[in-house]
Write a structure and sequence with these properties.
298 residues, alpha/beta, binds zinc ion, Aminopeptidase, three-stranded mixed β-sheet, single chain, 10 helices
Length: 298
């Protein structure tokens, strides 16, 4: 686990931008937590899981208004699913699988040191990211985590990547109460999301598959010579066309996964992570957990 804020600032620059205004309150400070499991026998599956753990999401300087902040203690559901999967592995000790999981636990606070839209921050992978909206913080946290996982994967030719997150209101609008899966071209060629979705159907943890399209990559393209990519538009994802698909394009490009041949599937549980879609009062569901277990552990 990394708790040194200076190290996070250096090694996880996008994640730390989100964490910046929480640093002054010790109990709110960011953490990056890494967990590994390697079962006995020849390794058949090698998974790299990134979890979004926004411990509280105020929206940051783009503050959530109109009562939309209530329930944002639930913005760590992706991290909870990833940690839950590791706990399951520890309990049942399956053979033939290796899993490396990393969670970014960050509070998106508002304060005088808060990051703001228009800032350009270079990601761990060296991509200059222009901040579009500070409430689109989950993808910033996941991006540097994915890059670190990519570095850990090194020459692992069985590596498959996943990000699990309560990422967008758009996923909830589009496919709620189900999980949305958005895969890259390598994953699609391997039928990764399809196999996950089939397992989810069998294990009562269903997901819908959303295609990644060229428009998603156009949406985040650089607008000036000073940046390489835009993190987000400045409207709510729920009123943005392709609001849950284009973040996968961002994650793939800004993390450097685009330069690899690794399969990558983004798992958005914003519509499925809480019962009834009621983030304020609903019970967390651990969406994605049984789907992953059904696909890789059975
Ligand atoms: Zn947010």
């Amino acid at each position: 686990m990394i708790s040194n804020q200076r190290q996070l600032e250096k090694d996880y620059p996008l994640l730390f931008a989100v964490a910046r205004s929480s640093e002054s309150v010790e109990r709110h400070q960011a953490r990056v937590i890494t967990m590994t499991y390697e079962g006995e026998g020849p390794i058949e599956h090698s998974l790299y899981l990134a979890g979004k753990g926004i411990t509280y999401d105020t929206g940051g300087a783009d503050l959530k208004t109109g009562g939309h902040m209530a329930g944002m203690s639930r913005d760590k559901g992706g991290a909870a699913t990833v940690v839950g999967f590791m706990k399951m592995l520890a309990a049942i000790q399956p053979k033939g699988i290796k899993v490396v999981a990393e969670v970014g636990a960050v509070r998106n606070s508002i304060g005088s040191n808060a990051f703001v839209a228009d800032e350009i921050i270079t990601s761990r992978a060296g991509v200059r990211v222009r901040i579009g909206n500070t409430d689109a913080e989950g993808r910033l946290v996941l991006c540097d985590v994915l890059t670190h996982l990519k570095e850990l994967a090194a020459e692992d030719d069985k590596a498959e990547f996943f990000s699990v997150a309560t990422l967008t209101g758009h996923a909830a609008r589009a496919v709620g109460p189900y999980t949305a899966l958005v895969e890259n071209g390598v994953a699609r060629a391997k039928n990764s999301a399809q196999q996950l979705s089939v397992a989810g159907d069998l294990w009562a943890d269903p997901a819908e598959i959303s295609r990644s399209r060229r428009e998603d990559f156009d949406f985040v393209k650089p607008r000036t010579k000073a940046d390489d990519i835009l993190s987000s538009n400045n409207a709510a994802s729920a009123v943005t066309a392709r609001g849950h698909q284009f973040p996968m394009a961002f994650l793939q490009l800004a993390s450097g996964l685009n330069d690899t041949q690794y399969a990558y599937t983004h798992v958005d549980i914003a519509g499925s992570g809480v019962e009834g879609g009621d983030w304020q009062h609903g019970k967390p569901t651990a969406a994605g957990l049984m789907m992953l277990a059904g696909r890789y552990l059975i």
